[in-house]
Amino acid sequence: MTPQAQTLTRLYTAFAALDADGMAQCYADNVEFDDEVFSLKGKEQTMGMWRMLCDAIQTRGRDVWKLGFSGIAADAHTGQVHWEAHYRFSGTGRMVHNVIDGQFTFDAQGLITRQRDRFNFWRWSRQALGAPGVLLGWTPFLRNKVRSQARANLQKFLAAKGSAMT
């Protein structure tokens, strides 16, 4: 197993345990993260997002949290992983089974410098939001509204926690 594949294994093992500190050890300071909801630059923002999500699950959903990962493949520069999360969405209390494929870029030390997670936003929104997701989950309107709310939530979380996110 390459050092980069080991980094991905450590990342998702820590995430499954809701161990944000363990996750932080896998990211370079200049990491860029992008998915259907967040576009983040730097370790502070990226780890702020993961800490916010881990805190929400520990507070309101630890009983149903489950994360599995497979298909890890990585060379010295790039990697990929398939992961699935089962959780209670904190905004509505609804159960979600999200299926995600991640693509990664690594630095010379084997740390993640870029992460791009892809998932079906409409599928996610139907589960997380119920009727609004069913009716509007395919529209840019709902996607932009969710992105805006997530950005605001992250800014509040970072302000409340200070800059000790890395």
Tags for this entry?
single chain; 166 residues; Nuclear Transport Factor 2, Chain: A; 6 helices; globular
Give me a quick take on this structure:
With 166 residues, this protein is an alpha+beta fold.
Q: Please indicate the percent range of residues in DSSP E strands (runs of 2 or more).
A: 25-35%
Level of helix content? 40-55%
Q: How confident is the prediction overall: mean pLDDT?
A: 94
Indicate the low-confidence ranges by residue numbers: none
Distance between the termini: 27 Å
Domains (count):
1
Task: Give the helix/strand class.
Answer: alpha+beta
> Major sheet: order of its strands?
2-1-6-5-4-3
CATH C-level label: Alpha Beta
Q: What is the CATH T-level topology?
A: Nuclear Transport Factor 2, Chain: A
Could you give a short account of the major beta sheet? 6 strands, mixed
Number of strands: 6
Number of helices: 6
Helices and strands, in N-to-C order? HHEEHEEEEHHH
Indicate the overall shape: globular
User: Which CATH-level-2 architecture?
Assistant: Roll
Rg from Cα? 15 Å
Describe, in plain words, how this protein is organized in 3D.
The chain is α+β, with helices and mostly antiparallel strands and 166 residues long. The protein has one domain (3-161): Nuclear Transport Factor 2, Chain: A. 45% of the residues lie in helices and 30% in strands. It has helices at 3-16, 20-24, 43-60, 121-129, 131-136, 140-161, and strands at residues 27-34, 39-41, 66-74, 78-88, 95-106, 112-118. A six-stranded mixed β-sheet has the order 2-1-6-5-4-3. The longest helix is centred in the last third of the chain and has 22 residues, at 140-161. It is globular. The model has no long low-confidence stretch (mean pLDDT 94).
